[in-house]
Specification:
single chain; seven-stranded antiparallel sheet; four-stranded antiparallel sheet; alpha+beta; 4 helices
Length: about 220
């Protein structure tokens, strides 16, 4: 069986398993055992007090209670369904940007979760932008250099956003061809809207062992 058929079959199985997935993307920051959790919050002027650790739809909040909860659970939850709670409810100012990242080089993942199960993609940071009192854009990216296997897994997981499996097969083939030729490869997928937001994914590989992917979710 060809590699593209294998990838397409795997993508199909992943889509079937995700038929129950809610429209909530959970950005999980997992801290290595024995390391005290510490997050760097850039753009602190974009944060105001929120009374609870979690807002509507289970979204993270970014006031003192919410930050303590993020540190304890090592998870940031952002709803990408387009019905995201107001910025004020989440402890964010009406207009601004906040970036959440570990304070050290730690294992981080993007987690799509529901019904007690999850799929994970390695990430480096999460940036949340608010405009006119609501979350407007969420950005996240993989670490600067991941291997082909991790890239394949991340892209196959992106079928949950509505990315076409055939387009994923074509990109992975392009990475392999470029690697054999000793050239760099880059590609930006068409926006995917299955979750109710528009998610654009860009891939860049200097080699098959030095790839990265960046994600931009625009709430509609």
């Amino acid at each position: 069986m060809s590699s593209s058929r294998v990838l397409s079959a795997e993508a199909s199985r992943r889509r079937e398993r995700r038929g129950w997935l809610p429209s909530v993307v959970i950005l999980a920051i997992l801290i290595a055992a024995g390391v005290v959790t510490a997050l760097v919050l850039q753009g602190v002027q974009s944060i105001r007090s929120a009374p609870t650790a979690l807002g509507p739809n289970g979204s993270s909040t970014f006031g003192p209670a919410g930050i303590k909860y993020i540190e304890r659970t090592r998870t940031v939850r952002v709803d990408l369904s387009g019905s995201t709670p107001s910025a004020a409810t989440l402890g964010l100012t009406p207009n601004g940007t906040v970036t959440v990242r570990p304070s050290q080089t730690l294992v981080s993942t993007l987690r799509l979760a529901g019904d007690g199960t999850a799929t994970e993609t390695p990430i480096d940071s999460v940036e949340i932008t608010t405009r006119a009192g609501a979350i407007s854009v969420v950005r996240w990216s993989t670490p600067a250099s991941i291997g082909f296997a991790d890239l394949s897994s991340a892209l196959l997981d992106s079928t949950a956003f509505g990315v076409d499996p055939a387009a994923i097969d074509a990109v992975l083939t392009g990475v392999r061809v470029a690697n054999r030729q000793g050239t760099a490869y880059s590609h930006t997928f068409a926006p995917a809207t299955a979750l109710g937001s528009s998610v654009t994914i860009s891939v860049r590989c200097l080699s098959a062992s030095a790839c990265s992917a960046s994600y931009v979710a625009t709430l509609m």
